[in-house]
Design goal:
- Helix content is 34%, strand content 25%.
- The strands form eight sheets. The protein has an eight-stranded mixed β-sheet with strand order 3-9-10-16-13-12-11-27, sandwiched between helices. Strands 20-17-21-22-23 form a five-stranded mixed β-sheet, with helices on both faces.
- The radius of gyration is 26 Å and the shape is globular.
- The protein has 514 residues and is an alpha+beta fold.
Length: 514
């Protein structure tokens, strides 16, 4: 076995943004589509999304939601009902104005002037308004509440600067929408779904996150409260990995979601919305990836174990494949992390070393190589993707258990990898959060003097609003910083707000962000 290190074409330390693009390309996750701002998600990348979707869908249904599907096209008038909502999305909306094309006489096509729509249709940027229309039809009585819906769909937001998985003009997501009789029920549900997202991120994606409330200026357009889960990437930047919104009665009033109360009289429902998207995949890459490519947590890996027989194109290959298939069958009959082990026997033609490094770059959690000599000795060569190198020797960290021992131990190894990736990311995050900075000048100095990847700062915050908040936003923009969220489990404030000098009421995180 060769011990030559096959790294990605770019290292994280040299250029994190270029490394990210290389990890996507060389890990066969996605590619440019030729359509501005849109990407082609390749099978391995889409397989990861399918795993996320399946695991999260189970969690969503366990909290009492039903899946439904709503139109891709939304009448423009729907958005005009909720002023804050339309203002928040107006610059990103893609709009359909005609329903037919005609020849232009020059070999091309143009919209038919006679086929102009009576009302423009917005290509779905989010579905609060169209789902609100349905809720207004479906909710008539207190007996119809709570109404809990979820939709898996694509979304279009016309982004100026795009980056694959993190910010694209079209992306995939789920969006949940619920209606409740009281503010208390709706707020409780907002936090219930925030906890679903936190658990999904940490338990399934091995992605440590901080759950908390967004400040006023970072709320979803039209929301009363916005809550988020925030993750730290390896370059110290924050990634908003999911949001949950309490919408009050704002959207209910705009859409007419009213019900006959049990005690009599008509009332507006209180609504929520919440969502995560394929942006999570970008977060997984930037949290777990290394200079050799992706490291996919086993719970979301399409294939948890890849077996590579070192085929030579001769008569011995059949026996080697049969030997490998015995291990495949053993593993497929076992469980890891609560599910049957997903194991692939890769018999595609190709040079053994090239196939190994392709799977390393894709981040398959466990790679098993088997050559003719291994078969003769009754062993296999086992590689853990999270422990690829022996740090003392600089050589590939490969083990050689017997086939039987490999079949018995690999399911447990998958659980170990899942936990190890989470612990590594959590320790890195915690080591890169600075505390004790008690002035704005101190924050500026921290981000100026801590290298390319400075991390986050925890500061005290007085929840400024109005003109005071606008001044804070300008300060942050000037330094290319953002306020992330107020952690739910933060230590109580005990000082003054670094922005206003007023007595602080809570603590917030300040960071550069994606």
């Amino acid at each position: 076995m060769s011990n030559i290190r096959h790294a990605l074409s770019v290292k994280r330390e040299d250029d994190f943004a270029a490394w990210y693009q290389a990890a996507i390309a060389e890990g066969q996750m996605a590619e440019e589509s030729g359509v501005r701002g849109c990407m082609v998600i390749k099978p391995w990348g889409y397989g990861i999304w399918e795993r996320i979707q399946r695991l999260l869908d189970d969690r969503i249904k366990a909290t009492g939601h039903d899946n439904a599907y709503f139109p891709l096209f939304i009448p423009l008038s729907n958005f005009e009902r909720e002023a804050d909502h339309v203002e928040g999305f107006a610059k990103e909306m893609a709009v359909v104005t005609h329903h037919r094309l005609i020849a232009d006489g020059k070999g091309g096509l143009i919209p038919d002037p006679d086929a102009k729509l009576e009302e423009p249709l917005v290509v779905r940027p989010t579905s609060e308004t169209i789902i609100g229309d349905a809720m207004a039809r479906w909710v008539q009585s207190w007996r119809d509440l709570p109404l809990k819906l979820n939709q898996w769909a694509n979304v279009v937001r016309w982004e100026m600067r795009t980056r694959m998985f993190l910010r694209t003009s079209e992306f995939l997501w789920q969006e949940g929408h619920t209606a409740h009789a009281t503010a208390e029920e709706a707020k409780d549900h907002t936090l219930t779904m925030l906890e679903v997202y936190r658990a999904m991120a940490e338990e399934d994606l091995a992605l440590p996150v901080i759950a908390g409330e967004k400040p006023e200026h970072e709320r979803f357009p039209g929301a009363v409260e916005t809550w988020s889960i925030e993750a730290m990437m390896q370059d110290g930047k924050a990634l908003q990995a999911g949001t949950s919104h309490y919408l009050g009665t704002n959207f209910a009033k705009a859409s007419g979601i009213k019900y006959q109360a049990q005690e009599g009289g008509e009332q507006f429902a209180h609504t929520t919305s919440w969502g995560v998207s394929t942006r999570l995949i970008g977060g997984i890459i930037m949290t777990h990836g290394d200079d050799d490519g992706l490291r996919v947590p086993p719970r979301i890996a399409p294939w948890q174990v890849v077996i590579l027989p070192m085929l030579r194109g001769n008569d011995d290959d059949a026996a080697l494949i049969d030997y490998c298939d015995g291990l495949r069958a053993t593993l497929a009959g076992q469980h890891a992390l609560g599910e049957p082990v997903r194991v692939l026997l890769d018999t595609k033609p190709g040079k053994p070393a090239q196939k190994r490094w392709d799977w390393v770059r894709k981040g398959a959690p466990v790679i098993v190589e088997v050559g003719g000599r291994d078969m003769e000795n009754g062993v296999v060569t086992l590689i853990r993707r999270d422990q690829l190198w022996d740090m003392e020797t600089g050589k590939l960290n490969a083990q050689a258990p017997t086939r039987e021992i490999a079949g018995q131990t690999i399911p447990g190894v998958l659980g170990d990898i899942q936990q190890a990736l989470f612990i590594e990311a959590a320790e890195r995050r915690d080591a890169n959060i600075a505390t004790g900075i008690d002035s704005w000048d101190g924050v500026v100095e921290f981000f100026a003097s801590n290298g390319k990847y400075p991390g986050w700062v925890e500061v005290q915050w007085a929840k400024p609003t109005g003109d005071a908040l606008e001044q804070v936003v300008e300060k942050l923009k000037d330094q290319k910083l953002t306020v992330r969220n107020v952690p739910r489990d933060a230590t109580p404030a005990n000082g003054t707000c670094i922005f206003t000098g007023e007595p602080a009421t809570e603590r917030v995180y300040v960071a550069r962000a994606y």
